[in-house]
Amino acid sequence: MSELTNIISETTNRLLEAYTSREQKHASEAGEWPTELWQALEQNGLTQPLVPESQGGVGTTWSDAFVIAFAAGRWQAPVPLVETIIASWLLSQAGIEIPSGPLTLIDDGHTLHINGDTISGAAAAVPWGQRATHAVAIISINDQPHVVLIPTSKITYIPDLSMAREPRDHLSASNAAFISAPITNTADISLVRCAGAAMRSAQIAGAMQAAIEITVTYATEREQFGRPLAKFQAIQQMLAVAAAKSVEGRMAAEIAFRTIDQTNADLSKAEFDTASAKVVCSEAVEAITDTSHEVHGAIGFTQEHDLHFITQRLWTWRAEFGSESFWAERLGRSILSRGAKNLWPDLIARQSGA
After folding, report:
1. Over the stretch 134-148, which tens digit does the pLDDT of each residue have?
2. What CATH number does domain 3-182 carry, 2.40.110.10, 3.40.50.10490, 2.170.130.30, 3.90.1300.10?
3. Residues 229-265: tens digit of each pLDDT
4. Which residues are CB-contacts of 333 (< 8 A; sequence separation ≥ 6)?
């Protein structure tokens, strides 16, 4: 880890630890916007790490952005941090001026279409839709993918919440104004979905680590039959398996971000590792949540405990920007298209970095 990466990691974790108390998370679930947290993130450049310095950003690598997304998951940051990071990056790639404030993303599956100088259609479960100043989507115009920036003041939203009580609002646009610019994208899948899957993988990895940490602490402190839970062999086995799954998830996510850097952010060339990360992290969610709640017992589900903040987000993020089934199918189709005889050579080539 480079010196800059260490600085970014320390800064992000320090800010999120300071501004994401249990009370703040409850307030956010009740609809309160964490103004101080967002201002601190913006002032420290953590909302635009992938934007070049010439465009007002920090100009760091995707590997640096990984530590931000990982920390956002670890502390369950109640703001659209990773959405703003991706949206800002897309706008910078297209040469569109990046607006201030939180941004959101419109994933695949929307029905938005261009009518001359306006845009109409709908999109479901837009993260933090009403809180964002603008929404960013990838829309094909004349068979060319374009980054589209839509002011949320021109959009109608129906409020909704995810399982974790994070805003997932439904969007409706009718002849709304927009700004667009073409972007190079050779993949047959939206850059929003690819980048979103990578970021959600990092968030899941961070949240899984948080779940393991508080579960190990609880097992060490909680006594049953005269000794700590952590002294029971069955509990030790459960924690060991869960910890291994957590580490696997983090490694898969880190590899995906590193590959994006190695391909100069050509996500079409990084899709294999991005898909693998989303599959590995999402499938690990079940083992982590099962173990954490089994060790904690009923207390883990209470509003007074931090565990439910973590596991509800894990269940939510697991399904967003493509579930593990979605990405596993894409992996399978990619492997089949290459032919069975090429599977092992391809894996060896990836391992060696060829």
Report:
1. 999 999 888 889 999
2. 2.40.110.10
3. 888 899 999 999 999 999 999 999 999 999 999 999 9
4. none
Give the whole-angstrom CA distance, residue 250 versus residue 102. 26
Are the CB atoms for 134 and 99 separated by under 8 Å?
yes
3-state secondary structure of 134: strand
The first and second tokens of residue 346, run together, are 């391809």
Tokens of 224: 């049953």
CB contact at 8 A, 314 and 285: yes
Domain 191-352, what architecture? Up-down Bundle (1.20)
Alpha carbon distances (Å) from 14 to 19, 38, 74, 323: 9, 14, 12, 31
Name the strands in the sheet holding 118-127, side by side, starting at the edge strand that comes first in the sequence: 113-115, 118-127, 168-176, 156-158
Alpha-carbon span 137 to 112, nearest angstrom: 9
Q: Which residue has the tokens 């994401």?
A: 20
| Nearest-angstrom CA–CA distance, 275 and 317 | 14
Domain assignments of the chain as residue spans, ordered by start: 3-182, 191-352
Is residue 300 pLDDT above 80, yes or no? no
The token pair at 176 is: 């709304």
pTM (global) more than 0.70: yes
Q: Is 87 exposed, middle or buried (0-12, 13-18, 19+ CB in 10 A)?
A: buried
Distance in angstroms (rounded) separating the CA atoms of residues 118 and 96:
17
Query: Over the Cα atoms of the chain, what is R_g?
Result: 21
- Alpha-carbon distance 203 to 67, whole Å? 9
Do 181 and 209 touch, CB atoms closer than 8 A? no
The string of DSSP letters for 158-192 reads E--B-TTS-BEEEEEEEEE--EEEE----SSS-HH
Between CA 328 and CA 19 the distance in angstroms is 36
Name the phi and psi angles at 149, rounded to 5.
-110, 120
Q: How does DSSP classify residue 105?
A: E
* CB contact set of 240 (below 8 Å; sequence gap of 6+): none
